[in-house]
Amino acid sequence: MAQRILFPASTHIEWPQGAKQNPWAQGFLWARNHTDVQAKFALDPNYSNLRGEDANGFRAIAQRSKLSDAGKDSGEVSMFPNLADEWWKEVRAQENWQSFTQIDFDRLKKDYGVSWVILQNRTDLNLSCPYRNQAIMVCRID
């Protein structure tokens, strides 16, 4: 019962060959299977707290690098304080994520080498987004 309350958008028994039911996890798998191993991603820095994401770890599922997030990555910073400055710069670079425009994405590419972003579905951007489902879209920063 507790799992169903805490993670309502996910299956609670996952078989090795079974398809992921959570749309965020599906997008993360798409990123793993369709992007270069060296690709660097950016997501909402608070993505793990968003409704329906259900704490699916991007790095673990996609096996790709991403900019630091405000939640999980703060734990690493508490154990390795020498990471704090870079972590804070990356989190600050993603402030106001929901309002990002092409200029902001271009800045992430220039400053941090971000080549892909995962966004909650938006229609106001002119990005190349080869993957989309009911929750997210995976877009390339050209």
Explained architecture:
The structure is a single chain. By secondary structure, the protein is an alpha/beta fold. It has one domain. Helices cover 36% and strands 15% of the residues. A 5-stranded mixed beta sheet has the order 2-1-3-5-4, sandwiched between helices. Strand 4 (128-132) and strand 5 (136-140) form a beta hairpin. The chain is globular and about 40 Å long. The N and C termini lie far apart (44 Å). The mean pLDDT is 88.
Structural class call reads: alpha/beta
The largest sheet, given as strand count, sense and whether it forms a barrel, is: 5 strands, mixed
Shape annotation: globular
Distance from N terminus to C terminus (CA atoms, Å) equals 44 Å
Q: How many E-type strands?
A: 5
- Number of continuous helical runs: 6
The radius of gyration over CA amounts to 15 Å
Strand fraction band?
5-15%
- Would you list the SSEs in sequence order as H and E? HHEHEHHHEEE
**Number of folding domains?**
1
Largest beta sheet: strand ordering: 2-1-3-5-4
